[in-house]
Design brief:
Layout (H helix, E strand, L loop, with lengths): L13 E4 L2 E4 L2 H16 L3 E6 L6 H12 L5 E7 L4 H7 L4 E6 L8 H8 L9 E5 L16 E7 L6 H4 L1 H5 L3 E5 L11 H11 L4 E4 L8 H23 L1
Parallel strand pairs: 3-6, 3-7, 4-5, 4-6, 7-8, 8-9
Antiparallel strand pairs: 1-2
Helix pairs in contact: 1-4, 2-3, 2-8
Length: 240
């Protein structure tokens, strides 16, 4: 699958002063590359999950753990402005989860992830999730060293989001249309949201999911297991 350039490579925020461009995210990108290198050395697949608040990230990860927790060793870093509620929900289903409390910052940055990883035992881990802060704007600009960025858009938030927040969909490899069990009750068009997302990013993959009714969860979990296997195979090839 052809991968879209990450935000670390795409155009980003900058300030121009007397013909001098100062890249505001340069420090973040440096740390993100360090994370990517460490994940490669430890053979860990890193998935950055983004969405608006309330789109179902934590519920999806709970169901993911129930399905493949015995097939792959996984851990989760959870970003939120306050409280450890999401991490507690994940621990309740047997996931080793560490909460990153941003204290009001509306996104995770690579430095936050790097510090959190120092407090998480990654020995033997094959799959590490980052559940980002619920926000379709700021997290789009911050590379966290991930292998794949997965964005959820729920049927409850409207189908106009890709064109309103194009950067997020441009830098994502996977779009999960969540809460599809509510489609009969909402003015939401899956066809419209997919068309807009692929107009922005023709390579983006799409899976329709319902974590409560289990729609699409097998397909999502199989995608994850395939990506874990691919990374492990690539690592073996590089060693040999």
């Amino acid at each position: 699958m052809d991968k879209v350039q990450k935000s670390s490579k795409a155009a980003r925020g900058s300030v121009t002063c007397d013909s001098t461009t100062m890249h505001l995210l340069k420090a973040n990108d440096f740390v993100a590359e360090s994370i990517r290198k460490q994940m490669q050395e430890q053979n860990i697949l890193l998935i950055n999950i983004t969405s608006s608040a309330g789109s179902g990230k934590t519920t999806l990860l709970q169901e993911t753990a129930r399905r493949i927790g015995d097939k792959v060793k996984m851990k989760v870093l959870v970003g939120d402005l306050e409280t450890e509620r999401d991490a507690d929900r994940l621990r309740a289903v047997g996931v080793d989860a560490l909460q990153i409390v941003t204290g009001g910052i509306c996104h995770l940055e690579a430095q936050m992830v790097w510090q959190a990883m120092e407090n998480l035992d990654l020995q033997g881990v094959e799959l590490l999730f980052i559940e980002n802060v619920g926000n379709l704007v700021c997290p789009a600009s911050f590379d966290l060293g991930e292998d794949y960025r997965v964005t959820l858009i729920s049927t409850t938030e409207g189908d106009d989001k890709p064109k309103k927040y194009p950067r997020m969909f441009l830098t994502s490899e996977m779009l999960l249309v969540s809460k599809v069990d509510l489609l009969p009750y909402l003015p939401f068009s899956v066809e419209a949201v997919v068309a807009d997302a692929r107009d922005i990013n023709p390579h983006i993959q799409v899976i329709e999911v319902s974590s409560t009714q289990h729609t699409g969860i097998d397909e999502w979990c199989n995608w994850l297991l395939d990506r874990v296997k691919e990374k492990q195979q690539l690592s073996k090839q590089q060693v040999s």
